[in-house]
Amino acid sequence: MQSNVSNGILNNWLELANIGAAINHRLEEALKEEPGLSLNEFYVLHFLSLNDEKKLRLQQLQERVGLSQSALSRLVVRMEAPRCGALRRNVCEDDRRGVYTEMTELGADKLERGRRIVEQVLEAAVRSGELPAELQSFMSRGAVGNAGSEGNAGNAE
Amino acid sequence: MQSNVSNGILNNWLELANIGAAINHRLEEALKEEPGLSLNEFYVLHFLSLNDEKKLRLQQLQERVGLSQSALSRLVVRMEAPRCGALRRNVCEDDRRGVYTEMTELGADKLERGRRIVEQVLEAAVRSGELPAELQSFMSRGAVGNAGSEGNAGNAE
């Protein structure tokens, strides 16, 4: 039944998924150590920072981070709790849909430290030569334009 | 704080994650319709088919599919239940670690139909021109070699 010829594109896809999972794992581990964020928490702060007012509705964050409503809600509650303190709930009285979360100064600080870590991990992966040439070339693209920065972070949930 | 220059590699990574999530979503939807598998169920069958005896220990499957022990265990129980019937439990009496799951004929049939669907979705994504040139080139690689076919399927869990 198995045909290696017809499996070509599936194998390429699995190779890509595999590389993505390995790098995600490294990002998780590195961020946990410093500044003490999960990868999804980092993405929450990153997408908030792209908003001019540094605040977003949960629905907007959910679309960007790519989590289910309940998972994102749990994440934000955790990040608003004093133990993390990276986010602050913001209820707008004259807008019934107006429950926002916004970044605190501590959150902004964690994000900045997190960005340095994430860039180090990604740059190390590109420099290591472990990526297929096409991916290395894609990841090494200059910072001209910012395709993807508004997209979601690709969570499966 | 936000620097678009230093965000270059992070944006590339987010773009990649975003494309991966969109294609994963299409694969999930297409497989659900026909042959009625989740993407992880498809991966379980695919990795089993790569084993000469078409059977693997749960631990081996777990590494390949990239799920946690509990998630993989739930998945396999569901696939062994009569309602799905794609897998069959196999307990080897003279090997204490010997709990395997193996593919049934129905499972092999579902896998074959699933492979056609997966290839169609992936080929359509490549042909659509929506992928960045580097990724299109990577995905279009010939079927020579089979890098990645032994790896895991890149689940976050």
Report strand % of chain A. Answer: 5-15%
- Greatest interface and its participating residue counts: A-B, 54 and 55 residues
Q: What gross morphology of chain A would you assign? A: elongated
Task: For the largest sheet of chain A, list the strands in their spatial order.
Answer: 1-3-2
Q: What would you say the CATH architecture of chain A is?
A: Orthogonal Bundle
What is the element string of chain A, with H for helices and E for strands? HHEHHEEHH
Query: Helix amount of chain A, in percent?
Result: 55-70%
Task: Briefly say what this structure is.
Two copies of one chain form a homodimer. By secondary structure, chain A is mainly alpha-helical.
Explained architecture:
Chains A, B: GO terms for molecular function: DNA binding; DNA-binding transcription factor activity. The structure is a homodimer of 157-residue chains. Chain A is mainly alpha-helical and 157 residues long. Chain A has one domain (8-139): Winged helix-like DNA-binding domain superfamily/Winged helix DNA-binding domain (Arc Repressor Mutant, subunit A, Orthogonal Bundle). Chain A contains 6 helices and 3 strands, in the order H-H-E-H-H-E-E-H-H. The first copy, chain A, has helices at residues 8-33, 39-50, 58-65, 69-80, 105-127, 133-139, and strands at residues 55-57, 87-91, 99-103. Chain A has a 3-stranded antiparallel beta sheet. The longest helix of chain A has 26 residues, at 8-33. Mean pLDDT of chain A is 87; it is low at 1-5 and 143-150. Chains A and B meet through helix 1, helix 2, helix 5 and helix 6 of A and helix 1, helix 2, helix 5 and helix 6 of B.
